[in-house]
Design a protein that fits this description.
13 helices; globular; alpha/beta
């Protein structure tokens, strides 16, 4: 069978190819073989495919990539809990083997304490950009057939759901009545976060580098959120900066990375300039401003307003505190500015993993003062559990009903397996999906099903 494989990883001269690999077969009653229908690509895939950094399975020198899966069971072991024709997606992370890791031992590998977990298509385990894969039934999640066309979005949506679950737990510390949410970035993860916030009844604002007339901006408005183009974007466009739109930015790494073009999109406007020492220096005109200290002039005043003072000025203009911020760009200076922009008792969720070694000067006293005196909370989130996938499927169904054009519009590029080795991620406006099986054949391969009767809090 065919698979997208990065080989020669251990030798230091990795290559990407459409390779022939053995087709899996069921060997244990808990296993199932899944025919892959489609795989979504995100920022993690972008880094793996462009920087060739994936970790192959132990004892091997090649890695099959891809972790956002949609497939149908074609062979089922007697004890796997599934049957042929079931539409499924798969969890990405597998627990470490350390008995001391209480989270892995209790079904929460996304909170692994040892760091010795494996992740399919990323680290130590082959992924899903192949025609077939084998998996234990406990790691496969049924998808209702009415989500057939968008089921590969279950994995990115699970990341959003994990954040919301953690926010609810953290905010049990007080009486919290959130009204306003801010999403930084308009790639796939940012768009899913914005739609989720709207479904939760929050007034939602999206701040991003993508032009105000872009498809991403229109999708934001279609779900009832407000879109604002970051001030630095216009300057970047005028200067010919590549990647000012959501599709040409550097990705955030890690399994919580957003789709190609989301993470690091703010950095796209800060075109690296080589200094005297050869180090990259971000353009001062496009870089976000630091949060103001207590008692200082508002960030939107003075010369900063003329240049476009960035996130802090935008939040000032809203005239109300922001209760929840999703940072989906992976641009670290923006994360620090978001700490200052967050309202009292609010939560800032960081979802992007920063791939570079950028350094900056921050108003540390002012940030520390605000976080302490205003009871702010900052949390990081990566990967997700089965519960988050299940809640995510519920939420995707709600999105389909409330915003019927949103999810299909988010998928801007359809590819074939043979297209992947030469893929230029800069040409992807929002999200690419690799159709391993032609879409026209999917419905005949999947048996009809209704929404599974999951038990979870929403």
């Amino acid at each position: 069978m065919k698979a997208i494989q990065i080989s020669l990883l251990q030798e230091g001269t990795p290559t990407i190819s459409l390779a022939d690999v053995p087709k899996p077969v069921v060997e244990h009653p808990q296993e199932a073989v899944v025919r892959v229908l489609a795989v979504g690509l995100d920022g993690t895939d972008r880094e793996i495919l462009q920087q060739h950094y994936g970790v192959p399975p132990e004892g091997e020198d090649a890695l099959i990539t891809g972790h956002e899966s949609l497939g149908v069971v074609v062979e089922a072991g007697a004890d796997c809990g599934l049957s042929p024709g079931d539409l499924v997606t798969a969890l990405v992370r597998r627990p470490c083997k350390e008995q001391s890791c209480v989270n892995c031992r209790n079904g929460h590998a996304d909170f692994c304490q040892t760091g010795r977990y494996t992740e399919r298509g990323i680290r130590g385990a082959n992924g899903f950009l192949t025609e077939y894969y084998k998996e234990e039934g406990r790691y496969l999640i049924p998808i209702p057939s009415d989500l057939l066309e968008v089921g590969m979005l279950a994995e990115p949506q699970s990341i959003v759901e994990k954040v919301w679950d953690q926010v609810q737990r953290v905010q049990q510390r007080l009486i919290w009545e959130p009204r306003t949410a801010l999403v930084l970035g308009s790639g796939p993860l940012g768009l899913l976060a914005a739609a989720t916030c709207r479904l939760l009844g929050l007034e939602t604002h999206v701040w991003s580098m993508s032009p105000a007339d872009s498809l991403a901006a229109q999708l934001v408005r279609d779900c009832g959120a407000e879109y604002r183009q970051a001030p630095g974007a216009a300057a970047a466009d005028a200067g010919g900066a590549a990647g000012a739109s959501g599709g040409a930015a550097s990705p955030a790494g890690g399994s919580a990375a957003d789709g190609a073009g989301e993470a690091g999109e703010i950095a796209a406007s800060a075109v690296p300039a080589k200094g005297a020492g050869g180090k990259e220096q971000a353009s001062a005109a496009a870089a976000p401003q630091s949060p103001p200290a207590k008692g200082a002039a508002p960030s939107g005043s003075g010369s900063g307003a003329a240049l476009g003072s960035g996130l802090s000025a935008y939040v000032d203009s809203l005239g109300r505190p922001v209760d929840l911020i999703f940072e989906c760009t992976g641009y670290s200076p923006l994360a620090f500015e978001a700490m200052g922009a967050l309202g009292p008792n609010g939560v800032l969720a960081l979802l992007g993993v920063t791939p570079a070694d950028r350094k900056l000067e921050i108003p540390s006293d002012a940030l520390n003062q605000e976080i302490v005196l205003e009871n702010k909370c900052v949390l990081g989130s990566v990967n997700a559990s089965r519960k988050d996938f299940e809640t995510g499927l519920y939420r995707l169904g709600e999105m389909q009903r409330r915003y019927p054009e949103l999810l299909a519009g988010l998928i801007t590029n359809r590819l074939k397996l043979e297209d992947v080795p030469q893929l230029d991620f800069a040409q992807i406006p929002i999200k690419a999906v690799v159709d391993v099986v032609p879409q026209a054949q999917w419905a005949d391969m999947v048996k009809p099903s209704t929404e599974p009767a999951y038990s979870f809090s929403v």
